[in-house]
Design brief:
- This protein is α+β, with helices and mostly antiparallel strands.
- It has one domain.
- The protein is 59% helix and 16% strand.
- It is built from two helices and two strands.
- The longest helix is centred in the last third of the chain and has 30 residues.
- The chain is elongated and about 80 Å long.
Length: 76
């Protein structure tokens, strides 16, 4: 079994009455999500993903509006 990387540590400072709480998160989970985010949302690939996503969203809204308008304004 692998040791767990998650844990909470609590330290109390006596001189200034400050409390310090640190939470350790598993680096395998955090780095996987961060890696996907960095790959798809930053740099040239991120710009391309945003442009393609914007175009897809535009055409979906356009088609829904066209079909809705066709049925609303259809002659009887």
């Amino acid at each position: 079994m692998q040791p767990q990387d998650t844990g909470v540590q609590y330290r109390r400072w006596n001189n200034n009455s400050r409390d310090e709480v640190s939470v350790n998160v598993s680096t395998a989970e955090a780095s996987g999500c961060r890696r996907v985010y960095n790959k798809l949302c930053t740099g040239k690939v991120g710009i391309a993903v945003k442009v393609i996503g914007g175009n897809i969203l535009f055409w979906i809204v356009f088609i829904i509006g066209y079909v809705t308008g066709y049925y609303v304004h259809k002659c009887k």
